[in-house]
Design goal:
- The protein has a 5-stranded mixed β-sheet with strand order 6-5-7-9-8, sandwiched between helices. The chain has a two-stranded antiparallel ribbon with strand order 1-2.
- The longest helix is centred in the middle third of the chain and has 26 residues.
- 59% of the residues lie in helices and 7% in strands.
- It has 22 helices and 9 strands.
- This is Glycosyltransferase RgtA/B/C/D-like domain-containing protein.
- It comes from Pendulispora rubella.
- Keywords: Membrane, Transmembrane, Transmembrane helix.
């Protein structure tokens, strides 16, 4: 049921996988290059993220081809695996039905979770964190407890190698290890902790080598108190309401996310959902310390609850927080909600917990569904959102166009959708993610300038005006919401365009 619902709920984006973004497309492009024998430890154009998600995507490309669907599936399957790992931990202490109801919070979730589950990179790191937690949970009542502890420690640090966001989870992994390793025998407790430390020391080696490489930059992982005031405002006004479900951002077309005006009935569900969430968290805090709660339930509840203040605190001091899309940095506490709710599910005996959690699950499901726009309209699902891209690629290839230029949010998604024919580079040199593309662009005498009416920051009229002022000869091609100016001049002879 959990696996089926995980895929069914995400059918709209899966059926429109070609409606991907450039950040995810970079992963797909690097996966294509990995299959050709080209490898880099860093993600193309990144100084802190690695190519782990690209390697995972490459595995999916082998049987399915380098398609947007395979790219999205590579990430979504990772999220479903994370969900099942959480379920596996919960079933060690709760009935299967209760565990299944708990992990519905990972099935019906708000848009910030979708950002990782549907669009790489990052999901591989999140899945590795929960694999580490599962290994640690297996320490309990196992004759191979040291082996499980070492595997958990190693996997937690490998997750940080995959993406630095996983560093946020290390205190949770450490607490989980301390609580699971607890044993009346002092020697056994120290043995388990020591094995976990040895595993972590082994897992940290790739991370140390990566951070020590000349290409690495560490500004994204630094914390500073200078940003607290700004981050608090973003948290209070945009990110936290979005995560809690009382405010939903949805695109009018593609990239133009605005607050969704919900009907009164939906607003009522949103606020009931918030009350449900707050009530469950408060009840869990009480039950974690109350007598009668089994130790196993108590410890996973404590880890889940700690994720909330830890995530919010990290958000407040992170230099990466910009706008409402920074809600993705609050995902950690959403992923641990099933654990945080575990004490209540144990006390409520299964079905009653489902009744208590229903308002929150309904609110999260509605918010996540609305954010699928334009792939959904109400309950109706739309398909074929990437047909304009396919048709434009065919036209450009028919004209012999081998290279193009566009805004960043158009450039790499089109390069991936076009299968690098033509190659599309960003209009700003600083946004280059893969320098060889720029070198190919520089060698060509003709190129196209692409404008997507809903993704490009630069309007079509501005591009046309600059072309006219430069005196360049060009042909204009229009396919749906895409416009291409095919410029018949060497790129270096088109001032204000290729030279930007």
């Amino acid at each position: 049921m959990v696996v089926a619902l995980s895929f069914l709920y995400r059918l709209p984006p899966l059926l429109n996988a070609g409606d991907t973004n450039s950040d995810a497309a970079i992963v797909g492009l690097q996966a294509m290059h990995i299959l050709r024998g080209e490898f880099s430890w860093h993600l193309f154009g990144s100084t802190y993220q690695t190519s782990v998600d690209s390697a995972v995507a490459a595995l999916w490309f082998l049987p399915l081809g380098a398609t947007p669907f395979a790219l999205m599936l590579s990430s979504l399957v990772g999220h479903v695996l994370l969900t099942l790992l959480s379920y596996a931990v919960l079933t060690r202490h709760l009935p299967k039905v209760a565990a299944a109801v708990l992990v519905l919070a990972l099935v019906f979730c708000s848009a910030p979770v979708h950002g990782n589950a549907l669009y790489p990179p990052r999901q591989a790191a999140l899945t590795l964190v929960f694999l580490a937690m599962y290994f640690i949970e297996c320490i309990d009542k196992s004759s191979r407890d040291a082996l499980w502890a070492g595997a958990g420690g190693a996997m937690a640090l490998l997750a940080c190698f995959a993406d630095p966001y996983a560093l946020l989870f290390l205190p949770l992994v450490g607490l989980h290890l301390l609580l699971v390793a607890r044993d009346p025998s002092k020697g056994r407790w120290l043995k388990r902790l020591g094995a976990g430390a040895v595993g972590a020391a082994m897992g940290v080696v790739p991370l140390v080598l990566l951070l020590g490489s000349p290409e690495s930059r560490h500004g994204e992982t630094k914390m500073t108190l200078d940003v607290v005031e700004h981050n608090w405002a973003v948290l209070r006004e945009a990110c936290l309401p979005w995560v809690l479900g009382t405010k939903v951002y949805a695109p009018l077309h593609e990239m133009d996310y605005v607050p969704w005006t919900a009907p009164p009935a939906i607003v009522a569900i949103q606020w009931l959902g918030l009350l449900s969430l707050a009530g469950l968290l408060l009840a869990s805090v009480f039950l974690v310390v109350a007598p009668g709660t089994p130790w196993g339930v108590r410890r996973i509840g404590a880890v889940g609850l700690l994720s909330v203040p830890l995530t919010v605190s990290a958000f407040l001091v992170s230099p990466m927080v910009m706008d409402q899309f920074s809600a993705r940095y609050l995902v950690a506490m959403l992923l641990f909600l099933p654990w945080a709710f575990a004490p209540v599910a144990h006390r409520a005996k299964g079905w009653r917990f489902g009744m208590y959690a229903a308002p929150y699950l309904a609110s999260a499901a509605i918010g996540g569904w609305v954010a699928y726009a334009p792939a959904v309209s109400g309950l109706a699902v739309r398909t074929g959102l990437s047909r304009d891209d396919e048709a434009m690629g065919e036209k450009l290839r028919a004209l012999g166009v081998r290279v193009a230029m566009a805004d960043y949010w158009v450039a790499y998604r089109e390069t991936f959708l076009f299968r690098e024919s033509p190659i599309v580079v960003p209009s700003h040199l600083a946004q280059d993610r893969y320098r060889p593309y720029r070198d190919v662009f520089a060698r060509e005498r003709e190129y196209a300038y692409l404008v997507d009416r809903w993704r490009s920051e630069e309007p079509e009229a501005t591009v046309a005006e600059r072309l006219a002022l430069s005196g360049a000869r060009y042909d204009r091609i229009e396919v749906g919401d895409l416009v291409a100016f095919v410029v018949h001049a060497p790129p270096e002879k088109t001032p204000g365009l290729a030279s930007r």
